[in-house]
Each structure stands twice: as structure tokens, then as C-alpha cells.
Amino acid sequence: MSYCHTFLVAVLCFFSVQASGAAQTPNVLMIIVDDMNDWVGCLGSDRVPTANIDALAERGLLFTNAHAPSPKCAPSRAAILTGRRASTTGLYSNSHWWRPAYPDLVTLPQYFKNHGYHVAGGGKVHHHTDGFNPPDQWDDYFDLITDQDLMVDYFKDRGEDRRFFTDKMPRHPNDSLDWGPMEVDDMEMGDGHTVRWASEFLAREQEKPFFLAVGLFQPHLPFYAPKKYFDKLPLENVELPINKPGDLDDIPPGGQEMAAHRRKDLRMIEQHDDLRRCLQSYLAGIAHADALIGILMDAFDKSAYHNNTIIVLWSDHGYAFGEKDHFAKNTLWERSTHVPFIMAVPGMTTPGSRSSRPVDLTCLYPTLVRLCDLPVPAGLDGGDITPLLQEPDMPWERPAIIDFLSGNRAIRTEHWRYIHYDKARAGEELYNLQSDPEEWHNLIGRFPEKANELKAWLPRSYADAAPTKKAYSFDEDTYTWRPRK
Fold first, then answer.
1. Which CATH superfamily is domain 3-399 in?
2. Less CB within 10 Å around the terminal CB: N or C of the chain?
3. Residue 463: how many CB atoms within 10 A of its CB?
């Protein structure tokens, strides 16, 4: 049977399933987690139980080799939600607002809204700070409630006049470098409010097909989570990642510079002997996010839409806790880019299936549009992965592509990672992930043919950086930007 015939049969089966549901046009439920790396059970990790994410993977297809398009929140989400890489848009960092730079750019939720869907979002979908989430993207939006906002009341209710758990350390400029347990229930946390809102949405009768985006802030800094998850993960059972001595000796200047980013934070945490507790709190945040996903999926299963809804789960990038002497994100190595990515498409994906083919999350825009039988807009960089949904092991030549800052790119294939830094930073790296999953041995120079093969995926040029926030004045009341004189 030819591929075209196979795909046609799959699509017909898909839409025949829809006919028995509440609507013939499929809905979309998109679940987003923040800063969650690949420490989930379905990806082979035993650091913390993730029963609900694992159960979601069993509903459909788990991509075991999925990568963020950038190892930082705003550029990653901008690339995913516009379908255009940072190297195309110049949206390289958190300092760029996408709307004033590209006022006519139609994002994924806005595209569905323009094509007759009721589009609702809650929590962190676009980047969460002011100016990243224009209200015209949505029919309904539930604003993010951050756990930082809840901390003041948390201590006040306990008669304590303080705000932070890590009082022994100097404060981070944005007060985010903090962690610790809160004696509250899952639904009392900031993301709990988002999940309650989304559950109520699913319980209501929807007159139109819907696109529902549920953005969880967990396990992003500050690492706050309900105390019960700390109790289940005793500090002595928390295993720190390996920070191999000399690991950076074969790293070029570009990689050295990226690895050094936030090293002061790492050293401060180590100085206070708090890295294990920091990691414990991050893992508790993963467990908390997993529980909320379970609550959301329970509401989904009780809804009228469980037979005709495409479910997607993704994370915007990973997180390091000392690997390569680095803390947080902002690098082009596996730890910063490898993320959970699950798609469950009724009538198309096989429950419990796996694909090791490399994908990056710019694929979501064209893939979801095609699955919902909408015209795929021109100009998208992302590759349509619909064929993999039907045949997870089919031959696949396209790699995952990751950009970070102008001129820096990683190319991830089934077994290899190639990294190219810009002229100022300089240098290349090449790793065989099959034999060296920790990326301890830079093989550049030893396999020139492989390096040249992967170089073909480098862009001919990189877009100039978009204007930063400093170029505009932003009016929160009218949600408008004006160029500064």
C-alpha cells in the first residue's frame, strides 16, 4: 500500500470517529508544562513518579526524541506558536515582544480562532510576562496565577512576616531563585486555579469546536510545590546529576560561554550546600504538575469531548542542575532541549506507541492545522509530522533543529547531535548520543563526513535580532505598544 493511500485511509478513519462524537470537527486540547526536562517515567526516568503523564503517553504516541526549538521560554514558545524558528524571526530571547515586531503574524491559537474555533487559553501559553499575550488571540483567557503571588499570603496565614524559603541565600534580582514546600493542596497552587478553570470549560456544552490551551507554570522557578511531594521524595533519595570533572575541556568558546551562564547561581547554591534541596523541589514540582494533569484528564474523560479531541502535551525546554557545570537552560546540549512530547489523535495514533524519530516542536503548527482539515498557511518552518502519527517508525530524514541566540544552532538526528556556534563565539561540537548519552566526548574532527552532513541543515543566514522591549513603551490597559522616540 502506498503512503498516500495509507494516509488517506487514516484520515477517513479519523473523521469517521468524529461523527460519533459531539461534533464532526475535532477539538484540540493542548497541555503545556514549563521548564520540564525529560525526567518522566515514560521517557525512562525513575527520579520521580509521573503516573499521569505516563498514562497520557499510553493513550497515543510518545516522541522519545523530541526537542524544544530554543532552550529558553519566550523564543521557544514564539517558535512553537508561530511555526517559525528564531533564526527566521529574530525572536532570540525573552527580551523580544513578538507582536510589535510582527504585527501581522498569525499565531496558532489565532489561526484556529480565524477558522471558526472557539479558542480558550489559561495559565502560561505564550511567555508569561506583560506584553506577550495579546487578548485578541483568544475568545476566553484565564490569567496565570503565579505561586510567587501566593507566597505572601502563605506566610501571612501562618503568622510569619517573610516571603522566601531560601532566606539564607542572597536574593535573585527577580526573586525567583527560591524553593520549598507549601502546606497546601494541589488545587490551591497557582496552576490548580488554571486546571479548575479548564475543567469547568470541559464540563460545559461548547457550541463550536474548540482549541483549549492549558499552560502550567510548574516546574518553573521558584520551585514551590505541595509538601506531600517532598514527603514522598526524601532528600537523601535525591540523586544529583553528574558534573564530570574536565567535561568542558573539549568544548569550544561558544559552548564555554553558554555553560557559564548562571554559574554564579550554581556556585551560590553549592556554597550553601543546597543543590540537593533545590533539585528535590524541582522534582516535587514535576510531581505536582503530573497530579494536575491527572485532574485535568479526569475532567476530560467525563466530558462530552473525549472521543473527538486531539490531545497534545509538550514542554518548552529542559533544565540542568550541574551537568556540564551549568545551571538552568540556555545551552544547546541535550539536557536543555530534550522534552516530553505526546500526541493522541483519535482514529490515527496507536495507543502506547513510540517514535524515536527526531522532531522539534515547530512541527505543532502545521500538524495540528492539517489534522483539523484546515489550510496550512505558507511560510511555516516547522515540518508536518502527520506521517509519523500513523507510522512512527517510518524512514525520517528531517532532524530536530534548535536555535539559541543569533548564529547558534544544534542539529539532532536519531543518534547524533551537531552544534555550530556563531563567529564571535566560535566552534563546533559533535556527539554520538547512542554511545555517549551524557555528551562527554566532543567528536568534532574525528567524523568530518558526519559533521558536513549535518551542517547542511544550518541556515544560509540568520535574521537580525528583533527590536527589544526597550524599543517600545507598553500600555497594559490597552495592550498596545508604541515605538520609543
1. Alkaline Phosphatase, subunit A (3.40.720.10)
2. C
3. 17
